Amino acid sequence: MKILARKDAMNHYKDAINRRLYKGLIIVETAIHRVSCLNRTVLGVVEQRSISKLIE
What we know:
Layout: H1 6-55
């Protein structure tokens, strides 16, 4: 195992924290994208049903 100097160790820990935060950010962005796509799909179906009821 490589022994890190104090300054290198602090940078290593900060990098690890940043990687975790970045991964979390990607997960959140992906979830937001999926929900927005789902909303568009669901709203499209609801609009089509509303329009077809108006036409009848």
